[in-house]
Amino acid sequence: MIGLSTENRIKILIVDDSVMTREGLNAILGNFSDFEIVGQASNGQIAVTMCSEYWPDVILMDISMPLMDGIQATALILKSHAKTQVIALTNVSSNEPIQNMLKAGAISYLDKNISIHELVTAIRQAYAGTSTLSLEATTALISTMHPQPELGHDLSQREREVLRLMAEGLNNNAIGTNLGISRSTVKNHLSNIFSKLGAANRVQAVAITLQYGLLVKSS
């Protein structure tokens, strides 16, 4: 089978602080006739410099690296190499790094556990301008469109009053007397408070209240 000319190959830069990962990807992807591995970088700082020399079409970018992480490197690279496509290839799966990487301009976000076939397909799709996202990345994107409300956002004014008095150490009878409500009504409010805060008892409810500053926010 006749290989593609150098001009028609997808030029790939591999950026990862793991030598084993870089060498492994280099060996595997180098077997594909439409790929050309133009270089390897052990951190984002080196990747930025290499981009100006090799002008890769696609970069496989890890996130957690010394000196300069993948998020910073991606943002810097795409400022001067708009046609380059960055694929985040990482084990980082928490929402904030995923969101920041995509905001920086990465076209795809993949877990390192994907198969070679999936990676090869993602590289070709990125080169064509099509995104490929892991389940975690998709979930992170959805969360930006539908952000989780702050803890305690659904507490009523009366429930906040009960919570404040409970935090001050008052028992149910004292809370009822202070607010002019019955003991059973206090119990109902406490039940609602525990449910909304995900607390099992008074101690947990007070701890959560202090940790998140719920009473301060409501004032």
Explain what you see.
The protein has helices at residues 19-29, 44-54, 70-80, 95-104, 116-127, 135-145, 157-167, 172-179, 183-197, 202-212, 214-218, and strands at 10-15, 35-41, 58-61, 85-90, 108-111. The protein has 219 residues and is α/β, with parallel strands linked by helices. The chain folds into two domains: 6-145, 3-Layer(aba) Sandwich (Rossmann fold); 157-218, Arc Repressor Mutant, subunit A. Strands 2-1-3-4-5 form a five-stranded parallel sheet, sandwiched between helices. Helix 1 (19-29) links the parallel strand 1 (10-15) and strand 2 (35-41). Helix 2 runs parallel beside helix 3 and helix 4 crosses helix 6 (135-145). The mean pLDDT is 90.
Q: How do the strands line up in the largest sheet?
A: 2-1-3-4-5
The CATH superfamily of the largest domain bears the name Response regulator
Radius of gyration: 26 Å
Task: Indicate the CATH topology of the largest domain.
Answer: Rossmann fold
CATH architecture of the largest domain: 3-Layer(aba) Sandwich
Structural category: alpha/beta
The portion of residues forming beta strands comes to: 5-15%
Stretches with pLDDT under 50, minimum 5 residues: none
Shape descriptor reads rod-shaped
> What is the ordering of alpha helices and beta strands?
EHEHEHEHEHHHHHHH
What separation lies between the terminal Cα atoms?
74 Å
**Main sheet properties:** 5 strands, parallel
Percent helix range: 40-55%
Count structural domains: 2
CATH class of the largest domain: Alpha Beta
Helix count, per DSSP? 11
Report the count of strand segments. Answer: 5
Mean pLDDT: 90
